[in-house]
Amino acid sequence: MANTAELTVDGKSYSFPTLEGTEHEKAFDISNLRDQTGYVTLDRGYKNTGATKSAITFLDGEEGILQYRGYAIEDLAAKASFLEVAYLLIYGDLPTKDQFTQFETSVRRHTLVNEDMRKIFDGFPVSAHPMGVLSSLVSAMSAFYPDLESGKEDNTDLHIIRLLAKLPTIATWSYKRSLGHPTNYPKNQLDYIPNFLNMMFSLPVEDYKIDPVVVEALNVLLILHADHEQNCSTSTVRLVGSSQANIYSSISAGISALWGPLHGGANQEVIEMLEAIKADGGDVSKYVDMAKNAKTTGFRLFGFGHRVYKNFDPRAKIIKKAADDVLSKLGVNDPVLEIAKGLEEAALNDEYFIQRKLYPNVDFYSGIIYRALGIPTNMFTVMFAIGRLPGWIAQWKEMREQKEPIGRPRQIYTGATLREFTPLESR
Ligand code: SDX
Question: How confident is the model at residue 148 (pLDDT cuts 50, 70, 90)?
């Protein structure tokens, strides 16, 4: 028998069905709440509200578990390639060799971007933040690669290939121009990550030597960022896509949401925070105290805390270990790594953080690795976007295939009640 939840309000009792997911998460189905009771729910930030059913990513915030389509993130980070994980997220299973060869070859052959997109890019000031450029250019892709007819999605797979293939190409343009260097074209003979690195770092005057240590480190980082169920930017992609907007406009909205310092922009904030602590003498306890008095100092420890993880973010554990490995293999000695470890140690032993279950999140150590790979701070969130792209695509595709209704939350109105209009001359 289906379980139900009983609600008594205004002296009347109501029953609502409950449901349980494959990992035993439970929910009340309140789809008919307002029709039955006249009440809506209020849940600021949707801390308790499930927006959908999804088969893509499972995470358990209490246990620190993260799985993509049932595969543990630890396994995927250690054994898979980023494009394999992209295929898994988008199409639901790890690809066979033939499937992967076809998928990877398609991506390889779509990395070139329409030259007219450069005219849009050239209109940005050199100082433009790469995330603003990326979001604009992805939105512009809808003009260069329109659906055959609106709502006719039979070429969705081609749009998916185009997004995966072209995002790294346009992502490098901002960096090259910030240096006054010419942008690089992709090379079909290079694999996905080497191609990105080559576009980022090669120069007309000398070839760029692809370092396998750098490739492997980026592969792990992109996999770890690939999806994270209904986070802010993914929910944005789903909401925009629920109006039948095209995939490029939906992904562009997701890039904009990710940019915020409380979300993907945190990886840039973390490095700037660690640099400030270093410049201020490296006294981490001073900054822990400032964070504890956030209401007066307005200071937050970026890279700490998470809406869902009330235990260690499993991604942070992997990245922290990778940071040690990569920096030692590259012979990089970055003092902010020790400051980060000292900050983590101080915070994890402080009652304020323990009580609020604030642990390092995915953004706390990632910037240290990006920096060791030669990637500048203002490109860190772009790296997050490149990693998260397959997750956004998978979630958008699932939303469309599930024929989700257009998203339209309700509200509790607290404004003025009806009042007479007073003509201007009388005011
Ligand atoms: C990502 O959702 C996802 O899955 C996101 C993500 C993904 O993969 O998509 O995991 C990626 O966005 C990671 C988070 C990156 N953001 C940061 O590192 C920014 C710093 N962290 C916080 O701003 C905060 O922890 C959030 C935004 C991440 C979560 O905020 P919540 O869940 O709304 O929690 P909250 O702001 O209500 O904080 C609860 C308490 C508050 O104290 P009290 O009012 O109870 O006294 O904890 C405090 C907060 O002041 N707190 C912090 C803190 N984070 C929360 N205090 C100091 N430093 C912090 N970082």
Answer: low
**Degrees to nearest 5, angle at CA 323 with 317 and 326:** 135
The DSSP H or E segment spanning 295 is: helix 294-297
Distance 340 CA to ligand 1 centre (A): 17
Note the pLDDT tens digit of each residue in 178-213: 999 999 999 999 999 999 999 999 999 998 999 999
274-287 pLDDT tens trace = 999 999 999 999 99
Closest CA to 214 of 387, 369, 377: 369
Contact predicate 146/247, CB 8 Å: no
Q: How confident is the model at residue 246 (pLDDT cuts 50, 70, 90)?
A: very high
Which residue bears the tokens 């592969």?
Answer: 219
Q: Take residue 380 and report the two structure tokens written for it.
A: 């860190």
Which phi and psi (to 5°) does residue 67 adopt? -135, 135
Q: Whose CA is nearest to atom 37 of ligand 1?
A: 307
Q: Are 121 and 173 in contact (CB under 8 A)?
A: yes
The candidate with the shortest Cα–Cα distance to 360, out of 270, 225, 285, is 270
| 140 closest CA partner among 168, 111, 160, 170 | 170
Q: Is 238 in the pocket of ligand 1 (CB under 6 A)?
A: no
CA 410 distance to own-chain centroid: 26
Atom 31 (ligand 1): residue with closest C-alpha?
Answer: 307
Residue nearest to atom 25 of ligand 1 (CA): 305
Q: What is the pLDDT of residues 49-100, one digit of tens each?
A: 999 999 999 999 999 999 999 999 999 999 999 999 999 999 999 999 999 9
- Return d(Cα 167, Cα 112) in angstroms, integer: 10
User: Cβ–Cβ contacts within 10 Å for residue 57, how many?
Assistant: 22
Query: What is each CA distance from 167 to 65, 370, 398, in whole angstroms?
Result: 29, 18, 21
CA distances from 12 to 18, 30, 37, 56, 392 (A): 19, 16, 9, 39, 42
What is the residue with the minimal CA distance to atom 28 of ligand 1? Answer: 306
Q: How far is the CA of 312 from the centre of ligand 1 (A)?
A: 13
CA–centroid distance, residue 204 to ligand 1 (Å): 44
Evaluate: CB of 294 within 6 angstroms of ligand 1.
yes
Ligand 1 pocket mutation pick from 224, 296, 300, 353 by most atoms within 8 angstroms of CB: 300
Active site residue 289: no
